[in-house]
Write a structure and sequence with these properties.
The protein is α/β, with parallel strands linked by helices. It has helices at 20-33, 54-68, 87-101, 116-121, 135-153; strands at residues 8-14, 38-44, 74-84, 103-108, 124-127. The chain is built from five helices and five strands.
Length: 160
């Protein structure tokens, strides 16, 4: 699972981070992750607040998420109703998924969540917590946990 291998992680997220601090944290974690795997962040345009009914906005965002992850072999949704894992559990999960499928994608929805079509194409649903977070903060939390997972797999000090 080193950079340059055939293993690829795509993080597909709805919307751009608006706060400078969150963008800086995202950039930092993406840079750190490159030491362990080929990680690509794809931001799809959010449709909420563009004058569409919620159902149409979710469908448009869903279509973009599916397009952004079309070549992946495994889609994993981050949802409130997903399975909760410990950091060690996430590390084991990521290792197994990467070894089995090579190309995996983690999808993070916008404020409205995921369209039914996206949910039907997902292989697994994970949850960061039973707590509710703004979707932008959830992205940062997930990137940090993904980074932590790789440090656990490598036995590095970060996790301690």
């Amino acid at each position: 699972m080193k950079k340059g291998s055939s293993a690829q992680i795509t993080v597909a997220a709805v919307g751009k981070l608006r706060r400078r601090e969150w963008r800086a944290a995202q950039t930092d974690y993406l840079k750190r992750l490159q030491r362990y795997a080929d990680v690509e962040l794809v931001e799809v345009k959010d449709a909420v607040g563009q004058g569409f009914p919620d159902a149409v906005a979710k469908r448009r965002e869903g279509e973009q998420l599916l397009k952004a992850t079309a070549v992946t072999r495994r889609r994993i949704l981050l949802t409130a109703d997903g399975k909760e894992l410990s950091s060690e559990g996430l590390a084991s999960f990521v290792q197994k998924e990467m070894e089995t499928f090579g190309q995996i994608a983690f999808l993070l929805g916008g404020p409205l969540g995921f369209d039914t079509e996206v949910m039907e194409t997902a292989s697994v649903r994970l949850s960061l917590s039973r707590l509710t977070f703004p979707h932008e903060l959830a992205r940062i939390l997930f990137l940090e946990q993904l980074y932590r997972a790789f440090t656990i797999l490598r036995g590095e000090k970060y996790h301690k």
